[in-house]
Amino acid sequence: xxxxxxxxxxxxxxxxxxxxxxxxxxxxxxxxxxxxxxxxxxxxxxxxxxxxxxxxxxxxxxxxxxxxxxxxxxxxxxxxxxxxxxxxxxxxxxxxxxxxxxxxxxxxxxxxxxxxxxxxxxxxxxxxxxxxxxxxxxxxxxxxxxxxxxxxxxxxxxxxxxxxxxxxxxxxxxxxxxxxxxxxxxxxxxxxxxxxxxxxxxxxxxxxxxxxxxxxxxxxxxxxxxxxxxxxxxxxxxxxxxxxxxxxxxxxxxxxxxxxxxxxxxxxxxxxxxxxxxxxxxxxxxxxxxxxxxxxxxxxxxxxxxxxxxxxxxxxxxxxxxxxxxxxxxxxxxxxxxxxxxxxxxxxxxxxxxxxxxxxxxxxxxxxxxxxxxxxxxxxxxxxxxxxxxxxxxxxxxxxxxxxxxxxxxxxxxxxxxxxxxxxxxxxxxxxxxxxxxxxxxxxxxxxxxxxxxxxxxxxxxxxxxxxxxxxxxxxxxxxxxxxxxxxxxxxxxxxxxxxxxxxxxxxxxxxxxxxxxxxxxxxxxxxxxxxxxxxxxxxxxxxxxxxxxxxxxxxxxxxxxxxxxxxxxxxxxxxxxxxxxxxxxxxxxxxxxxxxxxxxxxxxxxxxxxxxxxxxxxxxxxxxxxxxxxxxxxxxxxxxxxxxxxxxxxxxxxxxxxxxxxxxxxxxxxxxxxxxxxxxxxxxxxxxxxxxxxxxxxxxxxxxxxxxxxxxxxxxxxxxxxxxxxxxxxxxxxxxxxxxxxxxxxxxxxxxxxxxxxxxxxxxxxxxxxxxxxxxxxxxxxxxxxxxxxxxxxxxxxxxxxxxxxxxxxxxxxxxxxxxxxxxxxxxxxxxxxxxxxxxxxxxxxxxxxxxxxxxxxxxxxxxxxxxxxxxxxxxxxxxxxxxxxxxxxxxxxxxxxxxxxxxxxxxxxxxxxxxxxxxxxxxxxxxxxxxxxxxxxxxxxxxxxxxxxxxxxxxxxxxxxxxxxxxxxxxxxxxxxxxxxxxxxxxxxxxxxxxxxxxxxxxxxxxxxxxxxxxxxxxxxxxxxxxxxxxxxxxxxxxxxxxxxxxxxxxxxxxxxxxxxxxxxx
Amino acid sequence: xxxxxxxxxxxxxxxxxxxxxxxxxxxxxxxxxxxxxxxxxxxxxxxxxxxxxxxxxxxxxxxxxxxxxxxxxxxxxxxxxxxxxxxxxxxxxxxxxxxxxxxxxxxxxxxxxxxxxxxxxxxxx
Lengths: 1068, 125
What we know:
The structure holds two protein chains of two kinds. By secondary structure, chain A is an alpha+beta fold. Chain A contains 33 helices and 27 strands. A five-stranded antiparallel sheet of chain A has the order 2-1-5-4-3, with helices on both faces. In chain A, a hairpin with a 5-residue loop joins strand 16 and strand 17. In chain A, helix 6 packs antiparallel against helix 10 and helix 9 packs antiparallel against helix 10. The longest helix of chain A is centred in the first third of the chain and has 59 residues. Chain A is elongated, with a radius of gyration of 83 Å. Chain B has one domain: Response regulator (Rossmann fold), CATH 3.40.50. Helices cover 41% and strands 18% of the residues of chain B. Chain B has five helices and five strands; from the N terminus they run E-H-E-H-E-H-E-H-E-H. A five-stranded parallel sheet of chain B has the order 2-1-3-4-5, with helices on both faces. The model of chain B has no long low-confidence stretch (mean pLDDT 84). Chains A and B meet through helix 28 and helix 29 of A and helix 1 of B.
């Protein structure tokens, strides 16, 4: 029971159903044309079926019950059938509705909307056709059984069936529409409303016209009916059918319709009416369904087209909007499409690139690809087109602004089912930023690599397991290892560590590897030259996100120099400390008021502790300072203390042993920020040795001074400008005046002394040279005559040299002036002697001498000849020119005397003068003669062998004449060897033979052809000789009491020998 | 107005010889111009000279050099060379030269040579 109640429909719905059912019954009664049957169109059957179709099956009992009540109520009002007959008829009707609803639902499923032809046909066939059979059979049987209205079964069944079917066809659609759209909204537009109204009016009008007349005209109603069905579909059909039924009913009731009429034709008309309504309903429903189906199909098509358009637009947008350059190529590679992005990139489209007569592909690539990439790109495209293989390449494309950008281009062919290429699709992606980023990355990496190699450090990396993974180049170079050695990395690394450092390094590094702590150590590493150098090695781990160690990086810096420097510094500091400790410094300090505050240990050691009553500077100074030094020292200290100025004192201080020693005490005030003296510090140094040294220096200076003053030389000092500043006593005495006496004159000291002292002939040269030396700094050396105090000029040699500072500037000129008068006079004599010798040597060549004599004589002779001939002519003239003849005769006399003088001069040259003879040793004369011919001997490549016996006794000779003899004989000998080849030597020998000195000059010439004649005057064997040389020589030797002869020399040549008597023996 | 004969220039550094030659030439009717050195001669006009007698050995320019210079200016001018140094006279370069005389020279021979040279020069001119 509960279940039944739970499916009870709403009471309102049940009420409405009851009302509609009763109304339907009334409508059927109104249309029942055939009297007594009450059967015409049966609208409740349509209502019932529609209700059950839509209602849940479980609620059907409720609808059957309410339908039963409605039918019984209608029966009571209009049909007045016996109750059993009415119940039976209703059972037939209910059964019909249930069968119809069940079948329709069964075939069509739950939602019956009658929108397709299939639905309509099923509904008409099952709902209207089959289900009505049940009702017609039950109803007709009941009528026949109860004999109501005297109906036969066969007479009533068709009417009943068609009435029910028509009711279903007309009412069920309306009921379905009403029930299903009960809450639906009206969706008709204004135009549709107008159309609906127009259809309604036309329908009414046509109905009024058609139904009033002949029956076949009733079908004129069909066009508006179908219009409504086409235009308004199912709803329109339902409403129109109901209207049609009502109009038909009205006309039928009023009797104006064709269906009204006499009883004979009523039965026929009844059938016609019902048939008309059934056909109308069927047609309208079918057309509505077809229209609906068509509309749906149209809608679907429109939606599909719309969807396709959307899709196409979307694709087009994708093609243009994806950040990729897309182009389409023909199977031959000619471009046919650029997407918008590509056109924007290039700045122009395909059409603009077209060039008549040229391949578009070539044009494009040449125009748009980078010149470096164009050939390879073209080749790649052509290769791809030829083989059908896709290509992929990176190249540069020119952007609209002219910038080339890297792109990654790829192309793939689109093939048909047969494998034939239809299109090429090519894309290019701008990878410029990536390429540049990669280049930058590579550059960066190379830079880093170079950096790592260039850094003056060793960079190693280790795996977390402690294996050497990388060693930079510098390490390899410095350490002399190669990468091949890395096989046993740990051992290699160990070998490079100094044996003393190795255990600690190993321990620490192992610890770091284990714990992951940073590694830092200084130790010695072996370089490839075998030397160990100090390094500072630091290693740190690189960790990943999880903190796990990825790699160890080690940097080793060569700190050898630094370590060495530190060592040196330490050593230096130690030395300094020792030095300071060892310094003989005494330190004292006093307050500003002079109160003693501190004494250094060394002071106490040296001087001793002051006595208890000594508490300030004054007392201390009085106690320890030497009484002689105290006043000065104390005064200076007092001044210093009073003014706050640092001061230095040198004085003798008594030490612990009671000995006074010189010290130097330096006092320095320490001031606070305000400048107030806080403390006085006095540092004292023992300068006893220094003072002694100074004393010694002074003594030395005094000694030197005395030395200078007493030296037997005249000393002069001058300022850098040459002005004399000092003269030694010797010089002052020589000159006879003091230096100061030169001052106050018009001349400078220098010019004053030069003008007054130097010989007038020498003064210009002296001044010039002196000025030159002063200007250049060159040392000065000159000999000149200097005026002595007594007015006599004495030869002196003056030497001066500059005394310079370290930087080279001249501080002073120091001069020494030596009396060389004796030497100069000796030299003068020497010079004269040399001149004499030179003259003698000129005369020594007797051949030349004779030529000169000839010339000297010829000159006056020529004059005499000319004059005497002129004289003769003057006298011979007519008349005789006696005056001119006299003059010429005087000239003849004069010239003749002149010639005589020449002769006597020559005679004098060879005069055998006894007074010129001096007693001398022959060895000196021989040496001089050899010197005279030495030059000639050298020129002739002749060696002169001198063999002179030592201690030759003196002989009295005319030195010059004997020299002439020697030179003449030596020259003869050398000339005799003129033609000799090979070694030539001239022998000069002198020895004592008895009471004579015998001298030999031997040559290696051709010897003497005429030994007897050679000494005769004018005999000569020489081309240019006059034959006088040997004759003169013999006469000289004989004049000296000696002899001169010639002998043959061995093995060849000649020997000239002369003797000279020894002084004592030969002297008278 | 005294008649002027041909002009003969004499160059010698010995004034005694200049005097004597001047005397000799004037006695023979020539006009003598005396010069103490070659430079003195070259300092004056050579165009009116008819003959030149020069010593060879002189300080400064010697007789050979003087002759060469004068011959350039006056190729036709007769030049006599005189020397007191006989070794010069023996040298090859004076051998075969006309008008070469050794001191002391033969005075008449000199005058004849001068006369002949002037004659020849006049004929040539």
